[in-house]
Design brief:
single chain, about 10% strand
């Protein structure tokens, strides 16, 4: 039987969006160990208190989370799931070898099909060359109030649930 794909969720600081997405994916796909990282990280920091509260309100937590910079430890994941167009540009610039396996969460939910080979689908999407569009952003709640984090968590929960359904074997 095939192994589920290794997924790395990527945001800017690895303190909110990628942390929430990783926790949500881990809950929905307990047989996998998803990763999370950021593009501009102060390493070793816990998630923000507002992130923790947004997760708790969904019955989730990740008490051991400490922020990490995306690097060679993550680049071999089968799929890098980013939260905004700027992250795609960053990945293409710093890790071009991963560009064909990097896409925004909204794009993946829009284009991936359930039960089909992930590598083949990613190749068909031509991710290394695709023009990224504004609709591909999951709004960063950083600097916002608790309600902004709740809205982000709700959006992520919906999108991550759809992604998990498409990646189930």
């Amino acid at each position: 039987m095939s192994q589920p794909p290794v997924v790395c969720f990527v945001c800017t600081g690895n303190a909110a969006r990628s942390v929430m997405a990783r926790a949500m994916y881990a809950q929905q796909m307990p047989e996998v160990q998803p990763l999370s990282a950021g593009t501009l990280v102060l390493e070793g920091q816990p998630m923000s208190l507002r992130t923790r509260q947004a997760l708790r309100d969904l019955g989730l937590d990740d008490p051991g989370h400490l922020s990490v910079q995306f690097d060679e430890r993550h680049v071999h994941a089968d799929l890098m799931v980013v939260m905004e167009p700027g992250h795609i540009a960053w990945m293409r610039r710093h890790f071009p070898e991963a560009a064909s396996r990097t896409a925004s969460l909204p794009r993946l939910v829009r284009h991936l099909q359930s039960g089909q080979n992930l590598a083949d689908q990613l190749a068909a999407l031509s991710l290394a060359d695709v023009e990224v569009e504004p609709w591909e952003e999951v709004i960063d709640p950083a600097g916002g109030d608790q309600e902004a984090f709740h809205r982000c968590a709700e959006e992520l929960n919906e999108l991550v649930g759809q992604l998990a359904n498409r990646l189930r074997l």
